[in-house]
Design goal:
single chain; alpha/beta; 11-stranded mixed beta sheet; 9-stranded parallel beta sheet; 26 strands; 19% strand; globular
């Protein structure tokens, strides 16, 4: 159940056998290779050199390792860029993003598609039936380094083609975009400009379509690679390694091409990436916030339709965040067990050995740079391998009682038109997830419109456009529902619904939104009633025909209920959110277990896991049989017991 990322091209060949042997001795079963190797596989056009990779794969296979082979399209080589500069992307300011790192391509380039297909086919034909090959990884980290959207000539051409297919006529395009506003009507699709470099705000409907266009391109590009791989390697699975808090394309749509999802888990690095307060960043600097990795485990389990890997697990300090502390002793082990508790099939560490050269030389590995000596994280990985040997096969992950609807497009629409500077979709959703986890419950994510059968509580923190499929599922659902602000606030064409928000859900929720207010930092409005706390950042003035469970200080409804549908008309502070979650969990008859801020639990079959992210001890419940750890859960430790 453990793996590692390895780059044989980085090391002298006489080290490969020793590395492979030591991987097996440590308890590693899988090794990912090849995702950045294009310049070594094809040093010049048509001049393929597979011999070194043949030998590397044979060495790894002989040692008993199973190989995940990456397609090398994340790093187009210099000779290819020199031949075809139209491959390169442009940033939102119209500046060329050049060669010299990675992910230097735009999905809009037809040349890039042709060249990608050519190298993927060459690699898939060569290794598709290799006896050591377990599966494939397409590309590497789509969207990383803000590389989903591109604003160059190739993007403009491709966007115009996409619009022609979508709208058929400029009359329909102008109507959908509301182009009569500010005289933005176009007479030809060739008149359409990219939604950047405008004097002031560009048309939000145009920006949303531009985001949809790029998201569909990512999925189609991935589908192209998957089709080639399946043609030459039909008996192997395919995955892609997604990133944390990268929401610029619809991961569910990409995963429709895949057999399982995977993601790259850097819990401490993501503390700097997420909009935490400085106090929170300091609080979790050396452990990560207790919900960052679990949030993504649960999300990518949903993206992968129940199957996911951690393809890259942080093994120590990283190199790419503004600050890069050393994890507290025990945290690499804790993160590994936590991923397994959430259903990961394999946890693969990045990387086998720290590189003493180039951009990532400050990024830890399981071994110290240039040496055959385990790092502190490598020793913790070995400890997990020994512990796993005593468990045998872990039980299947079961469906949770709580589902959170996760919608990538809601991120795009709230970025395009935030209304309040600090309204962040990913932060709102994360805080709702965090609050539920503080109540000790397990959580599944679901894509909008997915079946809701089997859940007792469904939570929608924010779904700006309610699709017909989502509306149908909510109408059929007989459990408890909690809906958050801005849900149903826009149509497909980024307009306010004729019947006002929440649009198609109005009769279900029994309310409509008359106007909204965004609240500056430091401002809050009290909420009292069956729940209490305060609204921050965002509040809505609503008319309600259902029951009013709580009100703002001015008497306007804050929390309403119509039958089992609850609507919260604000961004809640921590106390209001906790009270709201307690109310709906109780209404859904879901048992809860109140946890301190530094402890979390997760169930996998009959096993219950507890994780301590804090510096204070926590006592495990009595009357249980512990199978790993101790009854006193010490800082940065794990405990497992049978339910």
């Amino acid at each position: 159940m453990l793996g590692v990322c390895y780059y044989p091209e980085h090391w002298n060949e006489d080290r490969w056998e020793t590395d492979a042997r030591r991987m097996r001795e440590l308890g590693i079963s899988f090794v990912r290779i090849g995702e950045f190797a294009w310049s070594r596989l094809e040093p010049s056009r048509g001049n393929f050199d597979f011999a070194w990779l043949d030998r590397a794969m044979d060495v790894l296979t002989k040692a008993g390792l199973k190989i995940v082979l990456g397609t090398p399209t994340a790093t187009p080589p210099k000779w290819l860029i020199d031949e075809y500069p139209d491959i390169l992307p442009y940033d939102e300011h119209g500046r060329l993003r050049g060669f010299g790192s990675r992910r230097h391509y735009t999905f809009s380039s037809e040349t890039w598609w042709r060249e990608s297909a050519r190298i993927v086919e060459a690699v898939a034909k060569r290794y598709g039936d290799h006896p050591g090959l377990a599966g494939w990884q397409t590309d590497n980290e789509y969207g990383c380094h803000d590389t989903t959207l591109s604003f160059g000539p190739e993007d403009l051409k491709a966007f115009r083609r996409w619009l022609r297919l979508r709208y058929q006529s400029t009359e329909q395009l102008n109507e959908a975009w509301g182009s009569v506003f500010w005289s933005m009507e176009v007479a030809s699709f060739d008149d359409v400009a990219l939604p950047n470099l405008t004097v002031t705000e560009s048309n939000p409907a145009t920006r949303l379509d531009f985001w949809r266009f790029h998201s569909e391109q990512v999925a189609a590009y991935d589908a192209m690679q998957c089709e080639i791989i399946r043609r030459h390697s039909p008996d192997r699975w395919i995955t892609h390694n997604f990133m944390g808090f990268v929401l610029d394309f619809d991961h569910f749509q990409v995963a429709d091409n895949l057999d399982l999802a995977s993601w790259d888990s850097y819990p401490i690095g993501f503390v700097e990436k997420f909009p935490f307060s400085e106090a929170e960043r300091n609080r979790w600097a050396e452990t990560s916030h207790p919900d960052i990795a679990p949030f993504h485990h649960d999300l990518y389990r949903a993206v992968g339709r129940g199957r996911f890997w951690v393809m890259e697990q942080q093994p120590g300090p990283v190199n790419w965040a503004p600050w890069n502390p050393i994890p507290k002793p025990g945290m690499v082990r804790l993160w590994t067990w936590e991923a397994l508790a959430h259903g990961a099939e394999v946890v693969s560490y990045f990387r086998w050995r720290q590189a003493p050269f180039a951009q990532e030389q400050m990024h830890a590995g399981l071994n110290l740079p240039g040496l055959d000596e385990l790092s502190p994280g490598g020793r913790e990985a070995g400890q997990v391998a020994s512990e796993l040997a005593t468990f045998g096969t872990l039980p299947e992950t079961q469906t949770a009682k709580v589902a959170v609807v996760f919608d990538y497009q809601s991120h795009w629409t709230t970025v395009i038109q935030p209304q309040g500077k600090d309204f962040h979709y990913e932060e709102l959703t994360f805080r709702w997830y965090e609050s539920l986890r503080r109540h000790g419950v397990d959580i599944d994510f679901v894509r909008p419109g997915a079946p809701l059968d089997g859940y007792a509580l469904v939570v929608l923190p924010c779904v700006t456009e309610v699709s017909a499929d989502l509306e149908r599922e909510l109408r059929q659902f007989d459990g408890v529902v909690l809906i958050g602000p801005r849900t149903g606030s826009r149509t497909r064409n980024f307009t306010i619904p004729d019947n006002l928000p929440p649009g198609p859900l109005a009769d279900l929720t029994g309310h409509r939104v008359l106007q909204v207010a965004t609240l500056r930092p430091g401002l809050a409005q009290p909420v009292t009633g069956q729940i209490s706390g305060a609204a921050i950042r965002w509040r809505e003035d609503i008319e309600a025909t259902g029951d009013v469970l709580a009100r703002f200080g001015d008497g306007m409804p804050a929390l309403t209920r119509k039958e089992k549908i609850h609507y919260l008309a604000c961004w809640p502070d921590e106390s209001l959110l906790a009270a709201t979650m307690s109310l709906v969990l109780d209404a859904a008859d879901i048992p809860t277990f109140e946890l301190p801020e530094h402890v979390r639990m997760r169930r996998r079959g009959e096993l219950v896991f507890a994780f301590n992210y804090g510096a204070e001890d926590w006592t495990v419940p009595t009357g249980i049989r512990i199978v790993l750890g101790e009854r006193t859960l010490r800082p940065y430790e794990v405990a497992v017991w049978r339910a």
